[in-house]
Amino acid sequence: MKRIGIIDIGSNSIRLVVFDGPKRSPLYLYNEKVFFRLGMQSFGKNAFDTATTKAVSRIIKRYVTICRNMEINKIIMFGTSALREASNSNVLVEVIRKKTNIGVDVISGEKEAFYAAQGILLGFPNANGIICDLGGNSVEFANICKRVVTACNSTLLGPLALNKLENKIENIDGYMRKQLLGAVNANTTKDKPFFLIGGSWRAIAKIHMQRTKYPLKIIQGYKVNCKNIKKTLKFIQDSSFITKYDQINISVERLDLLPQSARLLEIIIDELQIKTLTFSSFGVREGFIYHNLSEAEKKKDPLLEAAKFFEKKETRFPNMSKHTFKWISPLYENLPRKTKRVILAATKLHDIAWIAHPDYKTEMCLELVTRSNISGLSHKERVFLAMILLFRHKAKPEKVFNSKLFKIVSKKKRKIALVIGKGLRLASTFFGEKSLFDKIDFRLKANEVELCFQSKIDFINGEVVERRIQELNKALKLCVTVDTKKRLFK
User: Fold this and answer.
1) Which of 15, 165, 355, 377 has the fewest Cβ atoms surrounding its Cβ within 10 A?
2) pLDDT-based confidence at 254, cuts 50/70/90?
3) Domain match, 246 and 102 both
4) Confidence band, pLDDT 50/70/90 cuts, at residue 204
5) What is the C-alpha separation between 101 and 192, in angstroms, rounded?
6) What is d(CA 179, CA 106) in angstroms, rounded to the nearest whole number?
7) Do residues 475 and 419 make contact, with C-beta atoms less than 8 angstroms apart?
8) Predicted structure pTM score
């Protein structure tokens, strides 16, 4: 991807994100946010005052300067609910244009919902269900089915808007229900996957993670049962919540908005009969990226595209993965396609920590997989991938298997990770600019591996190779039951 800068002028904040890396799985090169509650001024069709126009244009000018200094290929600037609502947003747009020579696209609520859904498709390529994007002033809804986005709607139920209305409307809950059901057809949402986008939703997810001691601290793909999150929503609505909840990295500006956001989520769950929630870090900004991809790019696997990118950028011999994946195929040939996909990604990533000190290679692998914004992964798949990379190095099975983080995946998957990791560890002893794998026969008999070397290269066998064969055979004996028709992991 050629670098793209996206400036999002929202109701609660103004943000710049610079994207780089693979098109189908872009990386955040730069990310900066300023809390600026434009929505507090514009709600009710009010005008921005002169001081606000000057302050916002100054922030935007800084962002544009950063982009140009980074030699950004394209700058996209858009405004959402606050600019839609303000009676004089055209004045702000014109001031920004004169100062930066870039136009601001003030997108409609329906368009915002559409781009939010496109953002979900960037991160979850097979997503089907309802999206809900919570901003400062508005909430957007859309339906995704087979990569087609429909039923795009917007309503003013954001926490800033609700704070403005709370003292003016006697039955605020009734108002919220009425507005919600005017924007979403409850008959079409029951039991469907429900994706949550927006800073306030992410903050709620963080609090729920901490309260439940969830071991993986990444929002993208975090999935919860609605029954399990209701206690957290009640906790956030408690009158003393803001004063006593200072032990998590959430800004005061965001904490202020959470009680109203939590109540809205309760009503959404009840009225739309939602069973599970999936939180997303991707939204409207990422939707602009996805929308501008070719159809061929959209069909690519974001996980594998990211793995290819890191393989080319960070590994010593980036052409080895295709040979390695084929060579170790006896270890995974009877596994499901979804599992093979993660194994292929691991094959591309398993040499990325080569530059690190041996004592820190496992930490480096763990950080990359569990903290980065690589998309196209569920949390279970993310942990499974991390385990393979740990076992590729010197991680001890008993230590990994007993860790709370790795218990996110099943015992079966943990054992598969051990076998594949040890297989990759063995394969790495034959790396170089040219492939030797077609001259080394990888044979799997019962639950033991044998290597057969062509006579011209039999000297490449040695003590390290033999030791790693023994490690793999030990893993196979621990993890595999041999069947006459197929190999099964216990």
Assistant:
1) 355
2) confident
3) no
4) very high
5) 44
6) 23
7) yes
8) 0.92
pLDDT (tens digit, 9 = 90+) per residue, 156-174? 999 999 988 988 898 999 9
Q: Are 115 and 137 in contact (CB under 8 A)?
A: no
In angstroms, rounded to a whole number, what is the distance separating the alpha carbons of residues 335 and 330?
10
Q: What is the total count of domains within the chain? A: 3
* Strand 13-20 versus strand 27-35 pairing type: antiparallel
> What is the DSSP pairing of strand 105-106 with strand 74-79?
parallel
Domain range enclosing 162:
110-286
141 in the same domain as 252: yes
Letter string b/e over residues 246-255, b meaning 16 or more CB atoms within 10 A of that residue's CB: eeeebeeebb
Mean pLDDT of the chain: 92
Contact criterion met (CB below 8 Å) for 106 and 79: yes
Give the SS3 label for residue 456.
Answer: helix
318 and 280 share one domain = no
In the chain, what is the straight-line distance between the N-terminal and C-terminal CA atoms, in Å?
43
**pLDDT per residue over 132-148, tens digit each?**
999 999 999 999 999 99
Q: Answer whether residue 11 shows pLDDT above 90.
A: yes
Exposure string for 122-138, b = 16+ CB within 10 A, e = fewer: bbbbebebbbbbbbbbb
313 burial type by CB count under 10 A (0-12 exposed, 13-18 middle, 19+ buried):
exposed
Residues 399 and 478 in one domain: yes
CATH number of 158's domain: 3.30.420.150
Distance from C-alpha of 85 to C-alpha of 158, rounded to nearest angstrom = 13
- When pLDDT is averaged across residues 373-391 and rounded to a whole number, the result is 93
Distance CA 143, CA 131 (A): 6
- What is the rounded CA–CA span in Å between residue 24 and residue 40? 36
For tokens 């295709």, the residue is 322
CA dihedral 242, 248, 249, 252 (to 10 degrees): 10
Shared domain for 249 and 395, answered yes or no, is: no
Q: Are residues 124 and 220 in the same domain?
A: yes
